[in-house]
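Task: complex structure prediction.
Instruction: return structure tokens for all chains below.
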Amino acid sequence: MILKRLGVSVFVLLAVSLLVFVFTLLLPGDPAQAILGQQATPERLAALREQLQLNDPWYVRYLTWLGGLFVGNLGTSAATGGSVNALLASKVSASLVLMVIAAVIAIPVGLLLGTWSAMRQGRASDQALTGLSLVLAALPEFVIGVVLTTLLSTTVFRLLPSVTMAAPGTHVWDRPLQLVLPSLTLILVVVPYMIRMTRTTMIDVLDSGYVEMARLKGLPERQVVFKHALPHAVGPVAQVVAMQLAWLAGGIVVVEFLFRYPGLGQAMVDAVNTRDVQVVQALSMIIAAFYVVVNLIADVIGILANPKLRTESHS
Amino acid sequence: MRKSEQRARAEGRASVVPRATVETAIAVEHLSLGVVDGGLILDDVGFRLRPGRILALVGESGSGKTTAALACMNHLRSGLELRGGTVELQEGASRFHRKAVDLLTLSEKQMRQLRGGTIAYVPQDPALSLNGSLRVGEQIAEVLRAHEFGRNARERDARVAEVLSEVGLPSDSAYRRRFPHQLSGGQQQRIGIAMAFACRPAVIILDEPTTGLDVATQDLVLKTIYQLTTKHDVAGLYITHDLAVVAQVANDVAVMLHGRIVEDGPAEQMLRHPQHAYTRSLLSAVPDMQGARDMGGGPAVSPLASVRAPWDDGRSAATHFTADNTTPCADTSDPGSAPSEQDAAAGEAPAPTARAVTRERGAGGVVVPGQEHEPVVRLRDLRMAYGQAVILDGINLELEAGQTTMLLGESGSGKTTLSRSVAGLNDDYTGDVLLDGEVLAPSTRRRSNEQRRRIQYVFQSPFSSLNPRRSIGDSLQVPLQLGGGMNRGQRRAAVADALDAVRLGRSYIDRRPGELSGGERQRAAVARALVNAPSVLVCDEITSALDVSVQASVIELLRELQHERGLAMLFVTHNIALARHISHKLAVLERGKLVDYGPTDTVLRNPRHAYTRSLLEHVPTLEEVG
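Output:
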């Protein structure tokens, strides 16, 4: 069963690569022109087109590009003329650091708060948390970012840097404090959904026959919740967590822009501005791959958490 | 564990051992419970559970019996509140309380010590109550751990194995490492029972533990329960709505109606000489294999000649659970006993020459079995398979006007597939379905309007077969609308007539399904099948979601409708006890094959196939009063 999911994932990625390639072809603008600028002579343009194999039929170019992807060669940047790999390496790692921090904090917090809220269903603390998470879920990420900046960086307290500084050759994580605001923003964006979904799922599960049975067996409440109820919530909650993590890969564009964080998002904005088709393609593929991998992990967790699916996959 | 605790427990155990001397384990008195800010669910309920005896709490869904049972564990489902009364655990019943104690005054923590250890619970539906993500052995072991049973893990392990073999399951470690979904329904229920008996409780509460099991498994589970409670001197509370089951396991009976206990007493007396009108009506609703009683107010279609209800003449029937009988129900369930027992379930069968024909009582329309009829529907060599799996294997069947054919089989036998093929809802079969000698297209979409009109189908669940957003009238006029040829007024009149015909009355026409009880909804569903005057009615398990007394009234309705309209009926069910009450012919389906087929009386008297015989052996009847 897991192998089947894996096969589907590969297929999805191939389909995405085709779509990305076709749509970037449709973009206005000529890569050769973009590289050489407006003053380029027709001869030089023609020569560069030949060099970039722009005259080949589209499917040949697609297959060449796809072949490059398989060996990890993302192509040549039209804007800088350098390798896309070199251009994106530092940005991808910078974004990845941000996302990992956000995920590592958000997932346990979301699960625990959601479970806690479900156990106190209907009480004041549950209602307060539910209301707060609804408000947070309703706010766009840039509003949360701006509020946090005002609160912690500029107007009220001046504790944290509001803008990321990364001189060439240094890493963003060399100054850990500047990671706080962007990751806090991301956490506040994704945690409310996780809380709400965990709470809803757990309320269903806590209402089930096997949880009532566990209580009637005289088991301590902690054991009832963590041993009998939580495993049943893991599958559905993993799906939501995956969706949120996948959202991080896209939503990070706005947050990075807000905090001038030199990551994927900024690279994307720059690439679109300069019509750097190769970089846009590469970034789209990276984000798509991230979506697919995260969802695949969620599916696998769902299968592993459910003995019924797990034992079927063996046979 | 600390030494002092160990000693306290040992002492506690010592005082628990002579349980048999304790007359009552739990005494419930003046118990009243209600919905928060709402009406009463339980009104002044009282009963006593005695060691080594089982009290059956009988009533219909909504009568409050599960609420009463859970109150014995001081467990109130959310939305309920206590209004008064006591649930007294008598002295000596638990190691935690030397003196008698009112459970309703205990804290949650104190209750936790008792739940599962001293007072154990067996749930109604093991599929919902066993945790799907834990291995079954662990689910038993954790009760032992929670109640500190045994000195160490090894002793607890041994107890898990012991209790598994007590309920008749394999106790090897491979079996204990299985997950619930890898067990059959009957095995799951026995895991539930093992879980309850694991800590050697003083009191065990069983909440309809055999609902949804086939008769053979039910028989086995009931036997297990009876043996364990007697052997270990456990006080049992058995909740059910099925009096036939009561006759098999219970020593005492309390009958509940609208949250009150209307009658109680020893089982023998209650089943033979019921005093309260409600108890009588419950008893008359139980289908019996002989077709002796007038279930639902009308005589059975194919009764066994010259037998009468046990309380009519006080004739003593075979008793299976007598005090000196150490192996209860051995005489009907031992697979190795003499072949003559094929008649066991039919009680003291009279000479086979006394045909049912001689017993045509009152209702002149009851069609005499054995008479020749023109088949309305004929199935010719119906076959169907999904790859290797054969669903239907060469079925030949005839449905005759004014006659009911019961299609009997367990889940997975192919009976629903067969009935759906007749109605054209399943078009993957090979072979022919003929209506008045004319071959029907497999799919209902390819059948003519007239052919569609003549075969109507009633679904199993009245809760999902009616659209909750539409009024009954709207739902019922759909078949007429599709048939065409009638204006709005005519359609409404026809719907009103159909509602009258199913004894609901035309006032139901503007109500919605949510306002109706289960039995009323099923009547409405029958009315929908009747609006365009079909000649064939296919009823797919239409009474299995209903209480016994509601089932009786629906059966009665079908008999009357058939009498009035001469319908040919295919009555699909897994309940063999209904056979004589509704069917002229009986067709027994096992794994897609008709293993027995003929007039109901003949099949029941001389079942040819071992499967039919095993069904007959295991069916619970009121004659087994213990």
